[in-house]
Amino acid sequence: MTTIIRVLVLALTAVFTTVGAQDFQGVATYKTQRRIDVKIDSTKVDAGMHAKMMEMMKKQFQKTFKLTFNKEASIYKQDEELSKPQVGGGGFEVVMIGGGGGGDVLYKNTKEQRYAEQVDTYGKIFLVKDAIEKIDWELGSETKYIGEYPCYKATYTKMVPKTIEMTSEDGEIDLDAEPEMEERTVTAWYTPQIPVNNGPDDYQGLPGLILEIHDGKLTIVCSKIVLNPKEKVEITEPTKGKEVSREKYEEIMEKKAKEMMERYRPKKGDRNDGSSFSISIGG
């Protein structure tokens, strides 16, 4: 059955590709959200304060992105919006480690199988250039509509660091220890009616535009699509920043993350003020 579905999808894609062989382009809007688990000692923290913290953190991870694409390339960047509220108060603070700023730009060239990502990290701009990693998607037979578009399900598995729990009482975490790994299944929904093998963020490689992603605690859903807009879209590869490979950038990020965790984690012997909390990291 899977083989039949694969053949039908590829055939349908070929038809749409032929029909839309002219300057095909579009703009897709995506909403993202990431679930984060925070447990706070209910005997020490007011329930109303806990709810306020959770709502602020929820907003911190809710973002809107736009994918501007044609048949060969795309630009993915956060939509302009007001600054997110700072998460803190009452002796509680969340420090966002890494990039993900509103000025970040991800350029993908699916024809040449390469990308260039402009990332603002700790006030320094990097230009990460590397090959697009091939995803071994498994095409499924399930279908559903997202808006007006019929979509097909696809999945793949990958190894990711296992979710860990940090508490306000932790003081002896081995930051140099290799993280435990676990297998995760990523689910995508794509539509052959939009004949590009692209999608949001670093998801691509399916016979149609990806409209929905479920990757652990991360969810990305397309909320709007404009095909062949009246004004021709511009897809320009970013050039600003210190050029590094993906491997080198991840080394820099890992070093910075360890420095931040070392700076903010409680030291052994520090007194606990009673407002204990724990944060699940991962997913």
Kindly describe this structure.
With 283 residues, the chain is α+β, with helices and mostly antiparallel strands. It has one domain (2-281). The chain contains three helices and 17 strands. The strands form three sheets. Strands 10-11-13-14-15-1-3-4-7-8-9-16 form a twelve-stranded mixed sheet, sandwiched between helices. A three-stranded antiparallel sheet has the order 2-17-12, with no helix packed on it. A hairpin with a 2-residue loop joins strand 3 (63-70) and strand 4 (73-78). The radius of gyration is 21 Å and the shape is globular. The two termini are 32 Å apart. The relative contact order is 0.22.
Helix/strand order: HEEHEEEEEEEEEEEEEEHE
Backbone CA Rg:
21 Å
How does the helix and strand content classify structurally?
alpha+beta
Supply the number of structural domains. 1
Mean pLDDT metric: 79
Number of strands: 17
